[in-house]
Amino acid sequence: MPRPRLGVNIDHVATVRQARGGVYPDPLEAALIAQGAGAAGVTVHLREDRRHIQDHDVLRIKGAIRVKLNLEMAVTPAIVAFALRAKPAQATFVPERRRELTTEGGLDLRKKRGPVADAIKQLRAKGIEVSLFIDPDGEQVKRARALGANAIEINTGAYSEAKTARARKAELARVRRAAELSHELGLVTHAGHGLNLENVVPIAAIPTLAELNIGHSIVSRAVMVGFAHAVREMRELIESAARS
Ligand code: PXP
C-alpha cells in the first residue's frame, strides 16, 4: 500500500447540514464517496458542543464503512465513554476550546497526564488505536510514547500557515524531524491540519509518515468541482417541468 495514506475528514459536510438543521448533506454519504474514491480512512471530530458531527453520525458511519474510522475527540469523561461504546478503529485525542474555529494547536502532554494515560489505557483495552495530536516538538513526541499511545498525528498547522518560503521551510524541517523521531520510537506517524493541493506535496514526501488527515480543503474543493453539476441538474429539472 503506498504511503502516506489519505484519511478524509468530513466534519464540514456536517457543518453545511447543521446550517439548516436538516438531513443533508449526509456525512455518511460523504464517507462512502470518500471510501469509493480510494481514501484509506474517514475522520470525524465529535466536538463537545456538537457543532457539526453528531453521535448518530459516528455510529452510522462506523456501521457502514469498511475503511478505518478515526474519531477525533477531547479527553473528557463523556466523550471517552462514547468512544468506548462506538469503538472506532482509531481515536485521535485533540485539545478542544469551545470558541475556536478549528483545532488550534497540539496537545500539551506536560499537562493532564493522568487523564490522558488513563483514557489511552481504556481505549486500547477495547482494541482502539490511540493517536495523540501534537505539535512537531521532540519533547511532545517522547511524552506521547511514554503515555502509551500507538501513534501521533503531527500538527501541520504552523507549516500550512507559514507566511514566507523561509518560514515554511523551517516548519517543514520541524515536521520532518518529529516524524523521524516518532518512527524511531516505534510510533505510527500521521500528520494533518491545513493541508491542501498547494502545500501537501512536501509533507506527503516525508517517508516515515503513514497517514495524512485532510478535511477543509477537500470539502471546499468538492463544492467548487461539483457546483456546475448541481446547477445543471436543477436547471434541467426546472426546464423539464416548464415544458410539461
Ligand atoms: N487533524 C486534526 C487533529 C484536526 O483537528 C483536523 C481538523 O479537524 C484535521 C486533521 C484536518 O484539518 P483540515 O480540516 O485543516 O484539513
Characterise this structure.
- This protein has 244 residues and is α/β, with parallel strands linked by helices.
- The protein has a single domain (5-243), classed as Aldolase class I (TIM Barrel, Alpha-Beta Barrel).
- The chain is built from ten helices and eight strands.
- It is globular, with a radius of gyration of 19 Å.
- Bound molecules: pyridoxine-5'-phosphate.
- Pyridoxine-5'-phosphate binds next to strand 8 and helix 10.
Tally of extended strands? 8
Could you say how many structural domains there are in total?
A: 1
The biggest beta sheet is recorded as: 8 strands, parallel, barrel
User: Unreliable runs, pLDDT <50, ≥5 residues?
Assistant: none
CATH superfamily: Aldolase class I
Mean pLDDT: 96
Listing every helix as H and every strand as E from the N terminus to the C terminus, the arrangement reads EHHEHEHEHEHEHHEHEH
Distance between the termini: 52 Å
